[in-house]
Design brief:
The structure is a single chain. Helix 1 crosses helix 2, helix 8 crosses helix 10 and helix 9 packs antiparallel against helix 10. The strands form 3 sheets. The chain has a 6-stranded mixed sheet with strand order 7-6-3-4-5-11, covered by helices on one side. It has a 5-stranded antiparallel sheet with strand order 8-9-2-1-10, sandwiched between helices. Strands 12-13 form a two-stranded antiparallel sheet. The chain is built from 10 helices and 13 strands. By secondary structure, it is of the alpha+beta class.
């Protein structure tokens, strides 16, 4: 993934080849070809948007894109970091749709186009920023460009591409994001748009051996300045500690339900992003219930004390 500026600082671009990351997502989720293309586009798009985040604290900034278009795939989620890692999940990986007349995979058919796209930017400090827009196509590239224009008032072009082989493996995947910055003229914007259109499908460009640096050379024929380059990769980061923390947030009743469902042998909690199974034994689940109830009792006592002080 490469970040660059062109037109004398009046346009910003991010280009990425994400084939290995998307192939890892396909391996983990074993989706239909249509869903593989959808989740690959969403993961690539999340990476491109995450690249615009700046690290201002020791905690890593994150960006999450959620799409629920009412299609058979259900909700899709991708989380990415400007450091170049991404993870993604989908509610129904086996969803399918009819093939389009042009022979291409019908991504909007599995995603749907009657819902919303939600982008959450977490800078690592303060409250995360959440932007919500209605889907305009379900093809995801247009939807992300619409989000940038409507929610962040940032005119942009987004191109996403995923090429699936007949046996299901990902042949090529990548994308680009070009944002217009203050000072760009109408003529420059029009010429830039024409050059982006002339690139064609980024997956085809990758198949021809032309990677992100070649894309930048075509988008900015007069040259550009590269100011960041990181490897794009899949990474989840889940752990038993995070699983337990998530369970505690659900509350004691939900943990009891997990305990009853698992019986004496314990319960497996599956990470939706990487499919890792974490076994929670009955004794530990009881400890989590006790911790939740203890924390709730302590909070209630503090709340009563504050009411008494105000009275």
């Amino acid at each position: 993934m490469i970040r660059a500026v062109g037109l004398g600082g009046r346009a910003r671009a991010v280009v990425a080849a994400t084939t290995s990351s998307v192939e890892e997502l396909r391996r983990l989720h074993d989706p239909s070809p249509e869903v593989a293309a959808a989740i690959g586009r969403l993961a690539t798009g999340a990476l491109l948007l995450a690249s615009t985040l700046e690290k201002i604290t020791r905690r890593e900034p994150l960006l999450t894109v959620e799409v629920d278009g009412g299609g058979p795939a259900g909700r899709l989620i991708a989380t990415a970091s400007p450091a170049g890692w991404v993870r993604a999940m989908v509610a129904n990986p086996l969803a399918t749709s009819d093939q389009r007349a042009d022979g291409k995979l019908d991504v909007s058919g599995v995603v749907g186009a009657e819902g919303q796209l939600v982008v959450t930017r977490d800078p690592g400090i303060g409250e995360p920023y959440r932007g919500v827009v209605n889907l305009v196509s379900g093809e995801l590239a247009k939807d992300l460009a619409f989000y940038l224009s409507e929610s962040e008032q940032s005119p942009a072009a987004v191109v996403l591409g995923v090429k699936c082989l007949r046996e299901g493996r990902i042949a090529n995947a990548g994308g680009l994001l070009v944002q217009l910055l203050p000072g760009v003229s109408d003529r420059e914007a029009l010429e830039l748009t024409d050059r982006i259109r002339s690139l064609g499908a980024v997956s085809s460009r990758l198949a021809d051996g032309k990677g992100p640096r070649q894309w930048l050379a075509e988008i900015f024929p007069e040259g550009c300045s590269i100011f960041g380059e990181v490897p794009a990769r899949f990474f989840c980061g889940c752990s038993m500690e995070r699983v337990e923390r998530a369970l505690k947030l659900l509350g004691a009743d939900e943990i009891r339900a997990v305990l009853e469902e698992g019986g004496h042998g314990g319960s497996d909690v599956i990470c939706g992003f990487c499919r890792m199974a974490y076994t929670l034994h009955p004794a530990r689940l009881r400890e989590l219930i006790a911790e939740v109830e203890s924390e709730r009792a302590r909070f209630n006592c503090q709340d009563r004390d504050e009411i008494g002080m105000r009275n």
